[in-house]
Every structure is written in C-alpha cells, then in structure tokens.
Amino acid sequence: MKREKERNENLDIYSWILSPEIRKAWRKEPPLPLLEQAAIVHPAYRPVEEKLEAIASLYARAVTKEEKEKLGQAKSFYETAIRYMRGGDREEVPGEKEPKEVWLIMCSDYDMAQESHPLRMHYYEEPHLVYSYEAAREWASQYVECGWESCLMQKWILQKEKPKDVFTCSARLVNGAFCTTHVYMNELRYDFRLDLWHLPYPLPFSTGDLVKLEGPVFSKTIFGVWDGELGLDEIWYNWMGYIEEKEFGEEPFLTVQNMGYHRLQADELSVLDWLRPASQEELPKEQRILGKIAKTISRVRKTQGEEAAARRFWEVFQINPPKRQKT
Has residue 116 got a pLDDT over 60? Predict the structure, then answer.
C-alpha cells in the first residue's frame, strides 16, 4: 500500500513528453490539471501497461467530480483493454461456454517522410488471421522492423449468429521492444475522450523558426518553418510549412501541416514527442529554400511583429490562413 502511494505521488507527467525542448518549457509553466496530464498519457508513445499505471496514479489523486468520473472511465478503459488482450472477456459473451476469438492483423506504415500523407496507410503485408493476442503479437513482431511501421490487430469473438468486433490495438517498436501502444474499444460504454484539442501552453518556437520532426516514427528527418499564432479566442494555433516530396517525376511543393493539436493529424503521432529546433546546416541541399524562408519570416517578426510574420508565412506557403472561431 505504501509503495503504491509513493508511485502515485511520484508520477512525473513531463517525462512522458519526448521532445526535450517542449518538456523543459512546460516544466516552467504552472502544473497541468489532472485531466490534461491524462491527455498526455492517452496517445503517448509507450506500452499500454504503462499507460494504465499512469492513469491509475492520476485517478488516485482525483478530487473533483469531473476528474473522478473521467479518470475512472480512463482507468476502466485500459483495464478492459488489457483483459481483452489476455482473453479475459470470454465469459462476458452470453450463450457460449467457450467462444473462440479471432485476431485480424494488418501491417502498415504511415510516414510523413514518404510520399503519401500519413493518414493514408500503406499496407505492406496481406491481412493475417490467428486465434489469440499472443499469436497475433508473435506474428506481427516478425514484420515490424522500423519505427514507422506498425501492426493493427483487431479482435473478433465468434458467436452463434455472427462474429462480434470487440477491440482493436496497434503495436510497434518502442526503444527496440515490440509492444502494444494504442487501444480502441468498439462499444459505446467505453467511449470517452482524453485529448488536448488545443495545447494548454505555447510550444517553445517562434514564427519563422526552423524546426524538424525527428524520431523513430519517421524514416528521415522532416524540416519545416514554424508559425505560432494566438487567435482571438486566446487559443494558440500552430502550423509547420514544409516541402512535400512526390514520386514519379512530380515536382516537390510547399505545404502546411496543422501542428496546433496534441496529435500531429496523423494516427498516433504526437507533436510533444517529435518536434525539435533545426539549424541551417542540417538542411539537405534540395531543401535549403526553407532556410531562406525561415530567415525572411524571422526578420519580419523581429522588425514588424508577430502578426506581420504570420501573414508573411501564409503568403509564402500560398494558403489562406484558417478562420479563427471560438470553440
């Protein structure tokens, strides 16, 4: 009991932020509320078992009715997920003493450094069927060799009338170890949200800064120019302009990715993990134009202010800025 209390009190939520710069900057801000701490845990690049332990720690510290309710839902969510993974849900299916479970496995990559948008997954193996999570994990681990590859594992329980789709999880390499990192329930009773729709604090980058997305989930470093704006609704809007490369002889072009949310607008990737500052010297030869753009926008910011720099950002990347509406 004493050891569990110490673990609950010693949870360092900032250690879950993998970007050193963001982690250092947010440590200087006022402590995050419990629900925003949970929102960092939920999509994190860590094993599900560690997420359950962290959520349980936050739940033990809950004070308000909302904290207790939402963190209790999150705790139940992860406990149920792990039970599904272990096959402990079989007794919940009525009319079947020994229902069989089937796992459908699909291996894919979603790499922003490649030609396609990360939401358009590229499946590089034919779907495979096995009869347990352990077998699914063993099969999938043979085909995930890089950090930007993952396997989606979907659990079905065979019933008399029709199969029941109950649970989905994804597994990938984390620090060289193959593990399940994200889980999804298919029943409404486990439907809850723990997302930072808007970041609670600004990221430690100014408009015109040269930045990069770097980490094992990318096959190569992605360089870009940063734009951070405070909207009329007092919410920070963050964007990254970068060069999207195409294959089959198409010319690369400038594009913009929404970086203002906790996730990177790609499945299971997080701004808080992979965003870093970059230097001119790091830029590949074919992307040196980004360095010139960054210098120009930074000069505008220093001489004319943040709003002028933001306008210049959208002029360069030839996209109309989004409408600012209160949420």
Answer: no
Tell me if 95 sits within 8 A of 160, measured CB to CB: yes
Q: Which two tokens stand for residue 240?
A: 């990254």
Distance CA 197, CA 179 (A): 26
Q: Phi and psi dihedrals of 289, rounded to 5?
A: -60, -30
Who has greater pLDDT, 320 or 175? 175
Helix, strand or coil for residue 113? coil
Quickly list DSSP for 48-59: HHHHHHHHHHHH
Q: Which of 78, 267, 294 is nearest to 172 (CA)?
A: 267
Contact 294, 209 (CB under 8 A): yes
- Residue percentage of the chain with pLDDT more than 70: 79
Q: What are phi and psi for residue 219, nearest 5 degrees?
A: -75, -20
pLDDT at 119: 42
* pTM to 2 decimal places: 0.84
SS3 144: coil
Alpha carbon distance 277, 22 (integer Å): 10
Q: Sign of dihedral through CA atoms 245, 250, 253, 257?
A: negative
Residue 270: strand pairing partners: 263
CA distance 123 to 171: 14
Hey, which of 46-60, 74-88, 101-115, 128-142 has the most confident mean pLDDT?
Answer: 46-60
* Burial of 230 per CB tally in 10 Å (0-12, 13-18, 19+): middle
Average pLDDT over residues 128-141: 92
| Structure tokens belonging to residue 226 | 């940063």
Compute the chain's Rg from CA coordinates.
22
